[in-house]
Every structure is written in structure tokens, then in C-alpha cells.
Design a protein that fits this description.
heterodimer; A: mainly alpha; Serine Threonine Protein Phosphatase 5, Tetratricopeptide repeat; 16 helices; B: mainly alpha; 5 helices; elongated
């Protein structure tokens, strides 16, 4: 009975539903409830539910009870990394990789940490090792896309996410990655589609839900004037503003430069005030 | 538990931790444009620390601001401390140029913050305070400096 509940909890985790996994885990009793596998699933469920402090505690309790375990060390490393405790996270990763240098999940976790710290060459080598250990592994492709976004290579990220979605249209992570890559390029429509799909596949992922809600609001006509903020980079927008401002003054239209600057200020104020108002009204169903 | 594998040697043990939720990089542009170099740089340096940027990068953010401030002062000294129709747009260009360099230095770490599921803090209140207080301070300070220099030259 309890082994069945544990299997079911594992299944919900694979479907990206940590809430259901934790429900199932609460039904597990006896020795099974304190097994290494139960600790792994419980810690991972808390990590996926964004409760990283709890995930760290559970993973450490599991390690204390059962000794070194690559699965528990992997969750511990990810939870610590998300809490910003990078040095501790690296130690957990390396401890796990000392047990199994070919563990794909640990190699991907460590590659992500190195890439996030700007160590792109090391990240690439770690991913190559993971790919060699398990050719065609999806976590490797996911991590490649994440690292491409971190480097600012959004076209590469979009290409990888498209490949993942072609193989599995229900891949919530790939939908979110497609959304993230598109939002960095200012493509609101594609970004919304990506996050909406990710949120639909996993309503527990509050980041995907919030991003989908935000992007749905961004598509509303009241916020259309703000499209340039998403489409163009800060660099392009500010260069344009400054050039227009300087040009007006330098050609002797100083009288027009002040109203133009004030109009820009009003537009900026609109860009700060309007989005939360539109989001709030949409939430209440008024818009 | 140590490994001899060169790829599995620790390289992240000296990563400075972030100190808080950073502000959006795009929001910092407003502070630079409306408040000037000093206000923009103060916000950018505080944000670089919040993001947990390495010390060298934080120094780079500060140096970009310092260079723009030096150019601002030089411009006012040359113009005889009066901020006229010609100087004002150039001061804005300098502040925004410094901002663009500062934003570039912070961009990658900011993307990583978003990738980790972080949510930016609102800059409205701090930004407004920086524009009003530091903007006025910069205007008064650089004008006083330019006045002192031109006074010394005349004397």
C-alpha cells in the first residue's frame, strides 16, 4: 500500500505536480516513510514547490539517516543554489560527483551553477560529459537551453526549446524556456504562448502562472503603447530619447525640448502605473 | 571525497552572495536620465551589490559613473559653471552613456537572477528619492566646483 503511494508520489513529481506528490507522501507510513527514496521525493517536491529551505533540511536529514546518496545530494545542491548559497551547493554537487562522476542530473546541476557564475567553458565541458554519459538525455538539452539564455543567446535557446517541444509537446519546462527566450527578444505573443502552456501543464509553477498573467496583460490594448519597451532594448530606447532631446536643443528648439521631456516623463509614469492597474482589473474580470 | 578529475575541482567557493532583490535594469535608465550621473550611479552600484557581482565588476560600475561625473565637471568648468541650453543635453547624454555601460556590466547576472525565478524589487520610491536628492546634489556640487575653478583661474 505505502510502496504504491510512494510510486504515485514519484509519478506526480514527474508530471511536475509537487503538491500532489506531497499529498501522496503523507499517506506513506512505517519504514517506507523514512526510506532514502521517500526523503528524495519529499525533498524534490519541496524544491519544485519553491520551498528550498525545507528541501535543504529534508535532504540533509536524509543524508544523515542514509549516508551519501547522489539523488539527495543533487536535490540539496539545487535547493542551495536557488537559495543563493553557491559555495555550499558546489560542495554538495562535488560530493555527489565523487560518488558517481557520470551522474547526468548532478553534471547538469553543476553545469548550470558554473554557467550562472559566468564560467561558460566549464559549464560546456560538464554538459559534454553528461551528453556522453547518456546521449539524447532531455535534462542535458534543457540545461543547454537555460545556459544559452544565461549567455544571452536567445536564438539558440529558442532552437533547443523548439526541438524539445517537437519531441514532447507536453514538456512544461520546454514551454517555459520558449517563453523566456521569446520574452527576452521582446516577442510578447510567443512569450505568452510559452508561459501559458507551461502554466497549464503545471498550475503549481507560480513563476509560469505569474509570467503568463503578466504577458496576457501586456497584450491588452491599454498597454499596446508600451510595446516598444518589450520590443527594443534599453540601449535602443535611451539612445533614441537622448538623441531626440539633444537634437531639439542643439537646433535651437529648446522650447520644444522641455515639453518633449515632460511628455516622455508622463509616458514613463504611464508605463509604471498602467501595467499593475490593468493586471489588477484583469484579475477581477473587469477587463 | 576529493576527486582528481580537473573538471570536478571547486571553482565557485568565492562567489559573493547577493544581498537582496535587485531592481530592473530598464528602470535604472529613468534614474540616470532624470536624476543625472550621480543618482544613476548610486542606484547602479547598490544594484550591482544586490546582484552579488564580483568586486571588480562593482568597481567597473562605479568607475563608469566616476568617468561620466569627471566629464560633467570638466564640461561645466569649460562652460564657466553655467548650465546652458548646450550643456544640459550633453549632461543627459553623459548620464545615459554611463547607465548603458553600467547596465551592460550587470546584464548577465540580472538574466541569471530571472532564470532562477527571482522577482525584481520596485525602484519607484528609491529611484524618485535618488533623482530628487542626488540630482540636486550633483547640480549644486558640480556648479560649485566649476565656480571655484573659474574663480581661481580668474584670480
Amino acid at each position: 500500500m505505502s510502496a504504491g503511494a510512494l510510486d504515485l508520489a514519484g509519478h506526480w513529481l514527474e508530471r511536475g505536480r509537487p503538491d500532489r506528490a506531497l499529498d501522496e507522501l503523507s499517506r506513506v507510513t512505517g519504514e517506507e516513510a523514512v526510506s532514502a527514496r521517500a526523503f528524495r521525493i519529499r525533498a524534490l517536491a519541496h524544491h519544485l514547490a519553491d520551498e528550498d529551505a525545507a528541501a535543504v533540511d529534508i535532504a540533509r536529514s536524509g543524508l544523515a539517516a542514509h549516508g551519501p546518496d547522489t539523488g539527495l545530494l543533487g536535490v540539496l545542491a539545487q535547493a542551495l543554489a536557488d537559495l543563493g548559497r553557491t559555495p555550499e551547493a558546489e560542495r554538495a554537487c562535488l560530493q555527489g560527483l565523487a560518488l558517481d562522476p557520470e551522474d547526468v542530473w548532478l553534471l547538469c546541476t553543476y553545469a548550470r551553477m558554473c554557467g550562472f557564475a559566468g564560467q561558460h567553458d566549464k559549464a560546456r565541458l560538464l554538459l559534454e560529459r553528461a551528453a556522453a554519459a547518456e546521449p539524447g538525455a532531455r535534462p542535458v538539452a534543457h540545461t543547454r537551453a537555460v545556459l544559452a539564455i544565461a549567455r544571452g543567446d536567445h536564438d539558440e535557446a529558442r532552437r533547443i526549446a523548439a526541438g524539445l517541444l517537437a519531441a514532447d509537446p507536453d514538456d512544461a519546462g520546454a514551454h517555459a524556456l520558449r517563453g523566456l527566450a521569446a520574452s527576452h527578444r521582446g516577442d510578447t505573443g510567443a512569450a505568452y504562448a510559452g508561459f501559458r502552456a507551461a502554466a497549464a501543464n503545471n498550475p503549481q509553477n507560480r513563476h509560469a502562472v505569474a509570467a503568463a498573467r503578466e504577458l496576457r496583460a501586456a497584450d491588452h490594448w491599454l498597454l499596446r503603447p508600451l510595446r516598444p519597451f518589450r520590443r527594443f532594448s534599453a540601449f535602443q530606447i535611451w539612445i533614441t530619447v537622448v538623441v531626440v532631446h539633444a537634437a531639439l536643443r542643439l537646433v535651437g528648439l529648446g522650447a520644444a525640448a522641455t515639453p518633449a521631456a515632460l511628455a516622455w516623463l508622463a509616458f514613463c509614469a504611464y508605463s509604471w502605473i498602467a501595467p499593475p492597474v490593468v493586471r489588477g482589473l484583469m484579475k477581477r474580470g473587469v477587463l | 571525497m576529493t576527486s582528481t578529475d580537473p573538471l570536478l575541482q571547486p571553482t565557485l567557493q568565492r562567489q559573493p552572495p547577493g544581498t537582496g532583490r535587485p531592481w530592473r535594469l530598464s528602470s535604472q535608465g529613468y534614474v540616470a536620465f532624470f536624476g543625472g550621473t550621480l543618482a544613476g550611479t548610486a542606484v547602479a552600484v547598490a544594484n550591482a551589490v544586490r546582484l552579488g557581482l564580483p568586486r571588480g565588476r562593482v568597481a567597473g560600475v562605479a568607475a563608469a559613473g566616476a568617468a561620466a561625473l569627471a566629464a560633467t565637471a570638466a564640461l561645466l568648468v569649460a562652460g564657466g559653471s553655467r548650465i546652458g541650453a548646450t550643456e544640459l543635453p550633453v549632461l543627459r547624454v553623459l548620464a545615459v552613456a554611463a547607465y548603458l555601460v553600467q547596465a551592460h556590466l550587470q546584464r548577465e547576472r540580472d538574466r541569471v537572477f530571472v532564470l532562477r525565478g527571482g522577482e525584481h524589487a520596485p525602484l519607484l520610491r528609491t529611484g524618485l528619492a535618488a533623482v530628487l536628492v542626488l540630482g540636486a546634489l550633483e547640480t549644486a556640487g558640480t556648479a560649485a566646483l566649476a565656480g571655484a575653478v573659474s574663480g581661481a583661474v580668474a584670480g
